[in-house]
Amino acid sequence: MLKAVEVLATGCLNGGFHTPNHRWVECAALVMSYNILGWPELMDKVRTYLSEGIDCDEYGEFTERSVGVYNPVNVNSMLVLAEEGNMPELYKYARRNLDLTFMYLDSDGSIFTKNSRRQDKADDITYPEHRWYSLYLWAGELFDNDTYLKFADTMLEKGALAGRGMASPLWLYMDRPQLKTLEKDVSQAVIPEHYHAYYPNSNIVRVRKGDFTYTLLANNPDFLHVKFGKATLTARMCSSFFAVAQFAPKALEKTDTGYRMTFSGHGEYKGLFPAPPQSPDWDRMDHSLRPVLHSCELDYTLDVTDLEDGVKLNIRVDNTPRVPFKLEFSIPAGTRLETNNIIMDTVAGGSIVVKSGNARLENVETGSEVTIEGLFGAHMYHKTMRGSIPPMDGAFSLYATGFTPISQEITLRFSKRRHARAFHQEV
User: How far is 239 from 117, CA to CA, in rounded Å?
Assistant: First the structure.
């Protein structure tokens, strides 16, 4: 075993890294190896890494924003470094991220990963048990934090009941034998189920209202996610404008009334050369000599206002008229969709344009509902719109469509079904 540690330590001394979290994983390995081998060069490398500073901001977010994979790796590394390296000043980074993670919890026990910079961004649904259970148990006992301990208990209970299994915490009980006799009443501890969190460094807003959560994201065409029960609605916008008008705002700005996201697309046509080019080869022509004709812009402004029972979107698209526009809501197959004229269960690959009025979406299993108010429809150019990303795989698409200039207010209201809906009820 000692030989294996020597091989590991030598590899760490001579090797490097290629992602931010690797530095702290390597530091944790180096400091544990130092405590066994006593090689001073191991701690020298740890101190050099630490001199770069910890990439955890004031809100607790690490560079990779990977709540489903690498944030727990970083938290584990910070705890190891603090304990094994006698560096208690590093505990604060672990605690910040443990607290932040509560703001990414949804009502079904899953965690939101769509703002990640790593592979968990692509996950449809991620549960925390396998990666987070041991860390909340460890930190809960270490810091005497009842909320951490309650979350550990919740993960253990829900993961086992749902058949998702658990990562084995045997190593933690061996390292911290006091856990074997740990008995605490955590019934008064509260895991947040209502919160409003804005993280400007990460360009994300998370608002949870019990069974409902909505998320605003910049740097992403999926700018709005709404979790209702076990279903997630995702919103996108696009216009048919030189294939450059898929709404993907660069920033999320806080305003007096809520939040604002903006996006602009530029288009232009080229004219004839003032004199014939030297070669007919298109790629060898100096196209900078061509005059620019009919330069035009398309500007989006999205203002978002939080409501007690939902969220309101004010959408403006202007500066070039008569451009086809679509607002797209991607809905899981099997969601119940109801308007004043139809009621149906959505199917994968299907779509609908609601010309006016409202549409009610129900996650049938939980009775959680989202009513979309203020829909509009003027054309059927949506799935194949030039410059837009394809519809989500396995989803149903609900569209609102029109022509610029667009000035529309869309309201999403959250509610719980208390009884069976009658067909004659207004949506």
Answer: 27
